[in-house]
Amino acid sequence: MNVRRIELTGLSNFRDLGGYQTSAGQTVSWGRFFRSDTLALLTDQDMETVCALGINAAVDLRYGDERADEPSRFLGHDQVEVLALGLDERPSVSFLDSFEPSDISAEMARTYLMENYQNYPFLYAKAYATLIQRLSAGDRVIVHCTAGKDRAGTAVAMVLTALGVPRDTVFEDYLLTNQYWDRGGRERPGMDPETVAQIFSAREEYLNAAFSAIEDRCGTVETYLKDVVGLDQTALAALRTACLD
Asked: What pLDDT is stored for residue 99 in this prediction?
C-alpha cells in the first residue's frame, strides 16, 4: 500500500513524494523520491525500514557544522550513499545561534527566513542538479535538511515543479510539515509563541518568496531550471521518464 508519511521512531517528517498528479495527467511514482528531517536520529530499526524502501542515495542539504554536530546515520553505509550537498559554511549567522528575546524577535525571524528562501534556489542550484541527475538515473533518493522544511522543502518544490506538478499541489506538500514535524525540542529558551511559529512552521509566504525570487531574476521557473540548474529538454525528459507513471 502506498503511504505518504512513513512512520519511524527517530524521525517525524519522513515522506514519500509519490502519488502527486501532474498537469499533463501523469503521476509521480511511489517509492522513488522521499523527503525527511535529519537522518542523524534514525534508530537501527528505522534504518532497516529506510533500506527496505530501496533508497540508495541521501541528499544532505545541511550546513557543514550541522553535518559535523549530527552526522548522518548512513555515512559509510553499504546501501545508502550520503551526498553532502549542503553549503560548507552558512551564508549568514543563524537566527537561532544569535537569538536574544525581544519584542521584535518574531519579525526578525520572519525577515531571516524570507531572505533565506529568496536565496535558496540560487545557493543550491548545483545541489538540485545533482539530485535531479540521481533521480533521472533511476536511484531512489531521499533529500533532507534538519527539519525537512526549508532547504529540503525548496528542493522538493523545484523537483516537483520540474516534473509538472501544479504549484497548488507543490504548496500542499510543503505545508504537510506543519502536520508531521515535532520540532525535536529545538526551540530556544525565551522564545514567544509567534517567534516559534515563524521559525518552526512551513509558511506559504516563505515558499512564495523562493518562487518570486526565481521569477524576478529569471522570468519563469522553466527558464530558471534550464539556465541556472542546467535542466535542458533532454535532462527534463529523462527526469520525467524516471519519476512519472
From this structure: 44
